[in-house]
Write a structure and sequence with these properties.
Blueprint (H helix, E strand, L loop, with lengths): L6 H11 L1 E3 L7 H4 L3 E4 L3 H7 L6 E2 L5 H5 L16 E4 L4 H13 L4 E4 L2 H7 L11
Parallel strand pairs: 1-5, 2-3, 2-4, 4-5
Length: 132
């Protein structure tokens, strides 16, 4: 199969349209206050690696449905228009997701440059997640 556009190009195009923030902007808890951190990774990644303390888990495949008040899957966490900070493992899925959010009309959305891997490398705290 020959693709017209590969994932690298899709991510690069999304990154050109969205704002990314460095981990250093979020390392201290008070810098995260007033923002809604959204972990887009698969739940198995959360169980295996943990997450950023205070973040909410939104499976990447459900983000658009949880944000849209017209969706039967709308989630109440999106009623309060806090700035959204999206992250995944490397920053690829979160760049694509931030781009989609902007297209949906979410104005105050960014993604973490380098994702959860950058968070770990910078010494960020990790909260363990357990299977339910």
């Amino acid at each position: 199969m020959e693709l017209k556009t590969g994932f690298r190009q899709l991510v690069a195009e999304a990154e050109a349209r969205v704002r990314s923030i460095p981990v250093t902007e979020l390392l201290e808890e008070e810098q995260r206050q007033g923002r809604l951190l959204i972990d887009l990774r698969d739940v198995r990644e959360l169980w295996r690696e943990g997450t950023i303390p205070g973040s909410a888990h939104v499976p990447r495949g459900m983000l658009e449905f949880w944000i849209d008040p017209e969706s039967p899957y709308f989630h109440k966490m999106f009623i309060d228009p806090k700035p959204l900070v999206l992250f995944c493992n490397k920053g690829w899925r979160s760049a694509l997701a931030a781009d989609v959010c902007q297209r949906m009309g979410v104005e105050n959305v960014v993604h973490i440059e380098g994702g959860f891997e950058a968070w770990i490398e910078a010494g960020g705290a990790v909260e363990k997640k357990v299977k339910r």
